[in-house]
Each structure stands twice: as C-alpha cells, then as structure tokens.
Amino acid sequence: MPTPGEHMTSHDGVRVAIAHDYLTQRGGAEKVVLAMARAFPDAPIYTTLFEPSTTFPEFANLDVRPSALNRIGFLRKNHRAALPLLPFASSSIEIDADVVLTSTSGWAHGFRTSGRTLVYCYSPARWLYESQMYLGQSRSLLKRVALAVLSYPLRIWDRRAALSADRYLAISTVVQQRITDAYGITSTVLPAPFTVEAAPEEPIPEVQAWLGDSGYYLCISRLLPYKNVDKVMAAFAGTDRKLIVVGRGPEADRLRKLKSDNVLMLSDLSSGQITWLYQGCNGLVAASYEDYGLTPIEAGYHGKPSAVLRWGGFLDTVDEGVTGVYFDQPQPDSIREAVGALERTHWEPSKIQNHVEQFSEERFAAELYAAVTDIHAGRIERTASR
Length: 386
Prior knowledge:
Structural class: alpha/beta
CATH architecture of the largest domain: 3-Layer(aba) Sandwich
Oligomer: single chain
CATH topology of the largest domain: Rossmann fold
Number of domains: 2
Shape: globular
Strand content: 5-15%
Helix content: 25-40%
Largest sheet: 7 strands, parallel
Strand order of the largest sheet: 3-2-1-5-7-8-9
Number of helices: 16
Distance between the termini: 32 Å
C-alpha cells in the first residue's frame, strides 16, 4: 500500500475510478473529489452533469466523463431541475474499474460497475429522508408536489443502490447514524480533508472600500434553506458589526431582499480571494444543519475562531473553547449572543491551527488507500442488514 504522499495507480494492480453525483458547484463535496483525484491521479471521474464554468477550475484539467444528460445545457446550469431524470442518468453510467470510489449524497452510488464499490457518503439524500429540512420554508408548491410524487420510487431506487455497495465511509458521526437509519448499513467515519489552498492572497478592492477600517465576520455557505444564512444575517441587523456572506444558490434573491446595509453578499470568488477573506476576518459564523462542518476547519487553518450551531458535523470539527463557541438554536438572538462570546474570549491562533492538523489530506488519502486495498483483496464484506 502506498504511504501518505505517494499515489495508488493502475501500476499497483488496482484500477480505480472516482464517481460523483454532479460537478456543477463549488462546495465542500467538490473539494473532496479533488482530494480523491490527487490521491488517485490516474482515476477517471464519472458524473451525471459537468459544468466547468461553475465548479472548481481544476476539474477542467482532469478526465471527467459525464452522462449523456450533460448535453442539455440548461440542466448543467440548473441541476436541481434534473431531479426526475437523475436516477435514469445514474443507472446509465457504466464504469470499468476494479474499485469505484464513490463520492455521494444521493446519486453516484447508483452508477453501475462490475468491480467493487467504496462509498464515501456526505448524507443519504436529504430530499428523501429530511425533506422538511431540505425545503425549509419554501412556498414552492411545485417542489413539494414533485417530492411527494417522486419520493416513493426514488426511495426504492436509492435503497437498492445503497445495498449494492461493498463498504460505506461516513463523513461524520451524525451521517454514520443516518446511514444506519436509512439503509441498515454499518459505516466507518472518515473526516473529510482540509486542503491548503496554494493561491496567494488576493484582495478584493470593492470589499476594502466597503469595509473601510471596520472588522468583519464571515459566513461561507451554499444559499439553501437548511443553511439558515437568513438567520445569520438577521443576527447582524441593527448592530455595528459587519458580515460578509460568500456563496450562491436558490436562496440568493430572497436573501438580497432581506439583508441590511452592514451585510455584503459575494459569490464566485477565487481561492486567493477566499484566503484573503479568511485572513482578515474576526471569525466565522455558521448556523447550518451541516453533515460535516468544513468551514470552521478552513477558518481554523488561518487561526480564526468560529461560532457555530451545536448540531451534526460541527460537533466533530469544532473544539468548544479552543477553536470556537456553540449556539443551541439557529435563531438571530442565539447567534448574536455567540458572536458576543467570540469577542469576549481570548483565542490562541496556534492552538486553533493545531486542531486542524487532524483533518489533513495526507491522513484522508492514507485511509482511502487502505480501504481500496482491503476491498480489492476481498477483505471487506458487505455489512448491510437485509
């Protein structure tokens, strides 16, 4: 088995392929896929949809193989509209590999292969098993009717796909339990890696002009209902604190109408610009129902503390009193109080940075190498209850 820093390739006698739901966004899951591709540089990446202009630019230089559905440009830019078609697109993908390393929160575990399947799961599909959280306060009758109609056949498809896997890895302890609840499958927790961005800091002139001499807090998130970005924004309304929100998603227009003058919304930033924002912020704020909680690790790399919701993946990634503080409800008053606690606490950047080391990409790659080797050797048996 290769040691950390080396690569497992086809020369090791194991042909590895990577599978991912869709590559149309810039988020934590896509960063994990890039880490997988660095660990297995010869592995092609199979996916349903691929839009290079809206995901990380590194994918443009990789061997990405999308489904036939990718020919429809509208769906590449609006992957949620493809929901009724994704089971068919997923089932149409055939992968010729000894081991398929599957990165998924809903579709890629349904790709077909004659080899073994190792699933790295961010969560069983939220729209099937946590639809209220997924939709939030959405008033869209079309979305609710579509989920109600599609839920039953999609659950059958989803469970069949899950039970075909040879082994499941869970991104966090909360997801580990969710996998058991949804599928009756025993999984192993493997935290997602934090990837150190090599890009130098890139100041954003319009942000500098907006800030003046003021400090600011940072909220980096996809703009979806369960991320509760509106609650974070409301916590800053009527205060003299400034908040910068970075992200895109279907909630963007609604949030722009809600935001106060001391909130700035940005999207589609470069790695260097994100680095610059982290370096300059007073701290990170996140009120989302996260399966993992990557942004506090990113903030911690820069020695910055976080105020986060006491829920889910944040419980694995934030050390209370050392790297950040918790609040118990995603409500403006609770968030505002937690930000006050951040300001009253003396934080030691070196201790925060030391905490981040356990989430290194080298450790992640080593665990994947071991799992792929075991599966290929037939040492891992399926652990699903039928």
